Amino acid sequence: MAQPPPGNYPPPPGGQQPNYPPPGTPPPGYGAVPPGAGYPPPPGYAQPGYAPPGAGFPPPAGYVPMPTMQPVPPATGTLQQAWQQIATKPDRAVIAAWSQAANLPQNQSWVQNSIIVGAVIQAIAGLIAGIIVFIAFHNITGTGVNIGSGFAGSQVASVGGIIVNVIEQPLRYVGEVLALAFGLALFMPESYGSLQARFQRALKPLALAQIGVQVVGLVFAVIASILAAVFSTAAINSVSSGTVSGGLIGGALAFGCLTFLASAGFVAYAITVLVQSGSVASNLNRWAVFGIAILAGIAVAIAVAIINLPLGLLNGI
Questions:
Q1: Could you give the CA distance from residue 240 to residue 139 in angstroms, rounded to a whole number?
Q2: pLDDT for the residue numbered 78
Q3: What pTM was computed for the model?
Q4: Mind listing the pLDDT tens digit for each residue in 109-148?
Q5: Number of CB atoms found within 10 A of residue 34's CB
Q6: d(CA 110, CA 204)
Q7: Which residues contact 30 (CB under 8 A, 6 or more apart)?
Q8: Phi, psi values for residue 243, rounded to 5°
Q9: How far is Cα 37 from Cα 46, in angstroms, rounded to an integer?
Q10: For 238-269, what is each residue's pLDDT tens digit?
Q11: Is residue 18 left, alpha or beta, with left meaning phi > 0 and alpha meaning psi from -120 to 50?
Q12: In the chain, what are the domain boundaries?
């Protein structure tokens, strides 16, 4: 079939060129939506009021939010004031405030000085108690009564025994403080830092809080040693002479009751300070701190027994 030549052709007779709208024009009566505007909501539909991103859901009616926990600001004062306030009021807030003060650059020596002072107090307590028992021992041995021999007897019968006691008690005290701080560091969350950082965190409140306990323990040890030496001397003299009076028995009961009450009060105070300072240091439960303290004390006692074992063997035990 023959093809028409190229070019535009006129419309046929009676025809008309169609008038199409430009491309993209919607048909008549159609409400077009601008690009990117989304679809309009249907009639009667209310757009929900969503909370802005990150704001969370609004609290229900009557809900009172908890107050925001703010870090305890560091206390202001000297190291002696820290010891005094913690000893007289072993509250967690007081211990935390002075522990924060120990973190300041100008107070970096507080922990070291506290451990040294605590060890010195232990040495003084061991010296005074040893002298009192030493005098009482020699008064008793003058009656002809044998109360001990070997290593146990030599510990109170000689000046060397007093010196050993003066050296052992401070070392034992330092070992107990360090062992407890290390035990708390082991059970702290790892988010608190490395083991060394956790150990330093635990050591600050423990070292600061133990000074008050050591002072009270010193007073208690001196009074108890004097009463025990006086009563034991009188009792053994009465037994050796064959005269045991009712007043002596009554005095023994009174001494036992007073010693028990004083010991219970001191132990309760020492445990309170220990648990409070340990919970501040580690943020652990108080019962957990108490259990860790018992384990640390057992570990130190075993170490002391192992060290004393060769000394006892050398003295015939």
A1: 12
A2: 93
A3: 0.66
A4: 999 999 999 999 999 988 887 787 777 666 655 544 444 4
A5: 6
A6: 8
A7: none
A8: -120, 105
A9: 17
A10: 555 555 555 556 556 666 677 777 778 888 88
A11: beta
A12: 107-314
Place of tokens 């008038």: 19
Written as one letter, the residue type at 176 is E
The Cα–Cα gap between 66 and 215 comes to: 40
The C-alpha angle 268, 271, 272, rounded to 5 degrees, equals: 85
Q: Which amino acid is at 242?
A: G
Q: Which amino acid is at 1?
A: M
- The token duo for 183 is 């035990």
Question: What was the pLDDT predicted at 115?
Answer: 95
State how far the Cα of 150 lies from the Cα of 291, in Å rounded to an integer. Answer: 36
Enumerate the H helices of the chain as residue ranges.
79-88, 92-102, 110-141, 150-157, 159-187, 195-241, 246-282, 286-314
Q: How far are the Cα atoms of 73, 113, 130, 217 from residue 173, in angstroms, in the given order? A: 30, 14, 17, 12
Give which of 43, 19, 16 is closest to 31, Cα–Cα.
43
Tell me, what amino acid is at 121? I
Q: 76 is written with which tokens?
A: 């202001």
